[in-house]
Amino acid sequence: MSVAELVDGILNKKRRYLARLISLIEEEDYDAQEVLSQLYRHTGKAHVIGVTGPPGSGKSSLVTKLTAEFRKRSHTVGIICVDPSSPFTGGALLGDRIRMQEHYLDDEVYVRSMGTRGHLGGLSRATSDAVTAIDAFGKDIIFVETVGTGQSEVEVIDIAHTILVTDVPGSGDDIQASKAGIMEIADIFVVNKMDLPGADKKVTEINAMLDLDPREREWRPPVLLTNSRTGDGIPELVEKILEHYKHLTETGLLEKKGLQRSRDELDQLMKYKLTQELSHKLQGRPEYEEAIKLIAKRKKDPYSVAEELIAEFLFSESR
Ligand SMILES: Nc1nc2c(ncn2[C@@H]2O[C@H](COP(=O)(O)OP(=O)(O)OP(=O)(O)O)[C@@H](O)[C@H]2O)c(=O)[nH]1
Ligand SMILES: [Mg+2]
């Protein structure tokens, strides 16, 4: 598939072209950047919803039920499941795919999982690009599901307009989410598995934590109860999600977030490209390998070699 074919196919809502582009994104193929660069002006319309929380708290089940509710309201949906622990691309998260397959026959829902390939920052870069691709494809709502356990997940979720943080009843005395600083990023708290004992207690705990938050905020994150098996609480959650989006629009926060995201994206992309170019230029070069040996023998120090190489690299770039 040529770049032009891919661009055309995606703008004409052909699923296999979208699937191909996301694979190219995962493979860090140069063509992917060219396609994305041409698609970019067609993006910025989707409402991106991040879903994060402890493993097994029911994120995928929740997204499945939310998708059904959004479809009822005639919204089209894209879903990206990010699996930071998976060494594979694409094929990971079989369980998620099985659970989400109730939407597979629905052409208006697109589901994709993404795994890490071990590149630092590669996963959040790839996820961000996949969101751009699905946005250009024309989905109204894009879910990004990620396990909330560390910094990289918080970065991934940065691309969302509305962030749902899930938790479950009886998950320890303290709120698990607070450990990773996830508490601060929540727009809506979801206590899932409300059928289990201790659900109300969990809601009270989260509200008590919110009461302690000294920050002035126009949007106090609501705490909602759901059952992602039966669908209880799902319509109310969809209402809150739409209400949050309306709040973002009316207060000008959406525009502000958009600016911040563009700044972060440009910043991230420049660093990423510089790193990529640098390693591309240096790998396997004899003087690079020689310098490494000299550093190991203490004949040279890595501080000045790093400066020399970067200066040389930047100089050769400007010619
Ligand atoms: N009792 C009960 N079980 C639920 C509920 N929602 C999900 N589950 C179950 O919880 C288990 C985990 O659900 P998932 O949706 O895979 O959770 P997840 O957070 O996506 O899991 P990871 O992606 O592995 O972190 C499954 O067995 C679900 O059937 C609920 O509301 N009540
Ligand atoms: Mg899941």
Could you explain the architecture of this structure?
With 319 residues, this protein is of the alpha/beta class. It folds into two domains: 40-251, Rossmann fold; 267-318, no CATH class. 51% of the residues lie in helices and 13% in strands. The protein contains twelve helices and seven strands. It has helices at residues 3-11, 15-26, 30-39, 59-72, 94-100, 122-137, 151-157, 199-212, 234-250, 253-282, 286-296, 302-318; strands at residues 47-53, 77-83, 109-115, 141-147, 162-167, 188-191, 223-225. Strands 3-2-4-1-5-6-7 form a seven-stranded parallel beta sheet, sandwiched between helices. The longest helix has 30 residues, at 253-282. It is globular and about 65 Å long. The two termini are 34 Å apart. Residues 87-94 have low confidence and may be disordered. The structure holds guanosine-5'-triphosphate and magnesium ion. Residues 55-61, 147, 192-193, 195-196, 227-229 line the site of guanosine-5'-triphosphate.
Summary keywords:
binds guanosine-5'-triphosphate; 7-stranded parallel sheet; 319 residues; Rossmann fold; 13% strand; 7 strands; binds magnesium ion; globular; single chain; alpha/beta
